[in-house]
């Protein structure tokens, strides 16, 4: 197929075309990428009855991200700008250099026994070597699974057991503000805990943290880089590119699978149609490679599009100040910045008037995109005022891998963005608001956000080795729909508003976490008879978890000591990113007469939301007891002085 430029369609036309004939719409987009064997069939269902895009066609993701650009004259363009205020480093890596490094590292992985279909876990901070490792896996047709560096050994162990990696690539350490986080002991502890043992680990030794190496198992990253370069392995479009774990309602995370073909087509489309990016321009997703945003928009999307991507190892504040983001935009002439609302709230908290932005030349910036959690209108307005560019809140999930609702700046006649709204459905996504019975709701009615099947290319085809959980989690509640787990509504003009999760998943600073998992961990403490974890409103992180625990009869322990132990337990088992800081002892938990804990009522109480007493409540006095504890401990927006 000969590549052709996408026509600049009006949004409404593109959207209608994508729903009227999805195969024809995506066949046209598929012509924008370089296949080894182009698709002849667009959409099918597999033996399990699950939708698959571009069956039988062949390509290589690393080729699309690197080789293609080098072959066609982009070799000397900077592919990756590594900006690390925590190590005082700025380095620029061209497409040619990134290809060279990737081909060497792929050769090294192959020497360690990694072949097509094998899994490789990557547990690293935001460093170029992590990007090289991802692209090297793609080059070999191996399946990478990046685990966010903030996760504790238990979480890593669970992922090791599920993915069963031949190799784990890690680093000796990361830097959180000015604190060294030694990764290697965490990795060693995780491997110790896991039942499955990888054959090798590859360790990037960083100057500020030397890791002890285990002879026979651990290999130095630089040694792996000395291997001869290898070329790209041809894979099928439907072969998995990566597994990315995300929290479900239980302790076992869900292994979201991303395939090669649909992913490449969707991300290439999104870079131009949603973000309006042209080859050669600079895109910065200020996130972590461990999240879907990092996969799609630090690594793959910008590279597919021939852009320069910024890889930032720092924080919005204190590295060294709340002007860091603006310094990066100015220094690297960033055209589009993408971050989570929490990052903007953190900056706003330290620089309320946005004065630091005035110290930098931000004229390169065209748009600020926000996602990962709901953006409150105050944060939206502050960002628009401070940056004087359109701010675009958009909505997607790890599962979709790319935006489902947005204001698409690459299409014409797009309704402008609006504070509080995530915009309009992106072509390919037939987004509906359903009631509890699965019937579409009229505008302005809040309900469950669902997407009519088939999902477009790039979305998860299944969960890793678990078709059944995939079906149960997303497809069976409302046949014919993907159920997102988020709630929201559409207004009379077609703008969508996403209000947050409707299940036991919470969103803390853009990190999706399971309250069910936290409850399982708290309940294992010998003092705890029963417990509930609520995701209460937090001015900085959007939400934060709070535990309410009932003590076992006769168990004596000071409330303060118990709280310390439970806080430490969550930190040790899940990680500091959970921001679990309160475990409050209560006499009883409110329940329905059938024994279901009334978490929603307690959350509403803590958040100061008006609510009606559930008619099924066992004993209404219990909510008064809970209120008294929240007041005494000053926990909850309604009762606290400073919740950050
Ligand atoms: C659309 C599809 C998706 O939703 S994909 C997911 C998108 N989500 C994101 O991009 C995440 C956005 N959030 C962030 O980047 C961070 O939360 C920002 C805004 C930068 C703030 O970071 P920070 O100041 O560290 O606060 P936090 O709440 O994230 O962290 C809480 C505690 O965890 C720690 N932590 C964090 N990261 C790491 C890490 N990599 N390694 C070790 N520890 C880590 C933090 O230091 C903090 O610890 P402590 O409680 O202060 O001791």
UniProtKB/TrEMBL annotation:
GO terms for molecular function: propionate-CoA ligase activity. Residues 517-596 form the AMP-binding enzyme C-terminal domain. It comes from the Bacteria. Residues 11-64 form the Acetyl-coenzyme A synthetase N-terminal domain. Pfam families: ACAS_N, AMP-binding, AMP-binding_C. Residues 75-452 form the AMP-dependent synthetase/ligase domain. Gene3D superfamilies: 3.30.300.30, N-terminal domain of ligase-like. GO terms for cellular component: intracellular organelle lumen. This is Propionyl-CoA synthetase.
């Amino acid at each position: 197929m000969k590549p052709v430029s996408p026509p600049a369609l009006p949004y409404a036309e593109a959207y209608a075309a994508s729903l009227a004939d999805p195969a024809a719409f995506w066949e046209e987009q598929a012509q924008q990428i370089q296949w080894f064997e182009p698709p002849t069939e667009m959409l099918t269902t597999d033996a399990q009855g699950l939708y698959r895009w571009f069956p039988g066609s062949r390509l290589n993701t690393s080729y699309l991200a690197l080789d293609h650009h080098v072959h066609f004259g982009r070799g000397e363009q900077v592919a990756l700008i590594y900006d690390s205020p925590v190590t005082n480093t700025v380095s620029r890596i061209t497409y040619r250099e990134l290809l060279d490094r990737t081909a060497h590292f792929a050769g090294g992985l192959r020497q360690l026994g990694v072949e097509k279909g094998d899994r490789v876990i990557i547990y690293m901070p935001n460093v170029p070597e992590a990007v090289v490792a991802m692209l090297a896996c793609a080059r070999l047709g191996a399946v990478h699974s990046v685990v966010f560096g903030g996760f504790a050994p238990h979480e890593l162990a669970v992922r090791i057991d599920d993915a069963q990696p031949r190799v784990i690539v890690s680093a000796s350490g990361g830097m959180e503000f000015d604190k060294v986080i030694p990764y290697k002991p965490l990795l060693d502890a995780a491997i110790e805990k896991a039942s499955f043992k990888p054959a090798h680990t590859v360790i990037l030794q960083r100057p500020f943290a030397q890791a002890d190496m285990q002879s026979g198992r651990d290999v130095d990253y630089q040694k792996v880089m000395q291997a001869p370069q290898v070329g790209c392995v041809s894979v099928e479009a439907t072969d998995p590119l990566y597994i990315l774990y995300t929290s479900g309602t239980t302790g076992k995370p869900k292994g979201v699978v991303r395939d090669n073909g649909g992913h490449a087509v969707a991300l290439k489309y999104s870079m131009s149609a949603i973000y309006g990016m042209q080859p050669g321009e600079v895109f910065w997703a200020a996130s972590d490679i461990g999240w879907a945003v990092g996969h799609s928009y630090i690594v793959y999307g910008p590279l597919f599009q021939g852009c320069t991507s910024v890889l930032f190892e720092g924080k919005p504040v204190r590295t060294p100040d709340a002007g860091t983001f603006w310094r990066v935009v100015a220094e690297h002439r960033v055209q589009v910045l993408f971050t989570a609302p929490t990052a903007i709230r953190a900056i706003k908290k330290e620089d309320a008037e946005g004065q630091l932005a005035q110290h930098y030349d931000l004229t390169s910036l065209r748009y600020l995109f926000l996602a990962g959690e709901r953006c409150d209108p105050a944060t939206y307005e502050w960002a628009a005022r401070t940056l004087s560019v359109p701010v675009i809140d958009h909505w997607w999930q790890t599962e979709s891998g790319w935006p489902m609702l947005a204001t698409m700046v690459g299409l014409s006649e797009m309704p402008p963005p609006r504070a509080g709204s995530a915009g309009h459905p992106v072509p390919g996504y037939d987004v509906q608001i359903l009631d509890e019975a699965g019937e579409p709701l009229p505008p302005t009615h809040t309900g469950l956000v669902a997407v009519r099947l088939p999902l477009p290319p790039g979305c998860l085809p299944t969960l890793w080795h678990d078709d059944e959980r995939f079906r149960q989690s997303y497809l069976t509640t409302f046949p014919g729909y993907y159920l997102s787990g988020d709630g929201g509504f559409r207004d009379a003009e077609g703008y969508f508003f996403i209000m947050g999760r409707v299940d036991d998943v919470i969103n803390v600073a853009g990190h999706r976490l399971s309250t069910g998992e936290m409850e399982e961990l708290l309940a294992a403490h010998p003092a705890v008879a029963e417990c509930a974890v609520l995701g209460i409103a937090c001015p900085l992180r959007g939400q934060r978890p709070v535990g309410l625990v009932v003590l076992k009869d006769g168990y004596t322990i000071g409330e303060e000591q118990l709280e310390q132990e439970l806080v430490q337990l969550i930190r040790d088992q899940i990680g500091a990113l959970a921001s679990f800081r309160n475990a409050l002892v209560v006499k009883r938990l409110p329940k329905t007469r059938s024994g279901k804990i009334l978490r929603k009522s307690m959350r509403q109480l803590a958040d100061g939301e008006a609510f009606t007493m559930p008619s099924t409540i066992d004993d209404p006095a219990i909510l008064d007891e809970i209120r008294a504890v929240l007041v005494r401990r000053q926990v909850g927006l309604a009762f606290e002085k400073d919740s950050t």
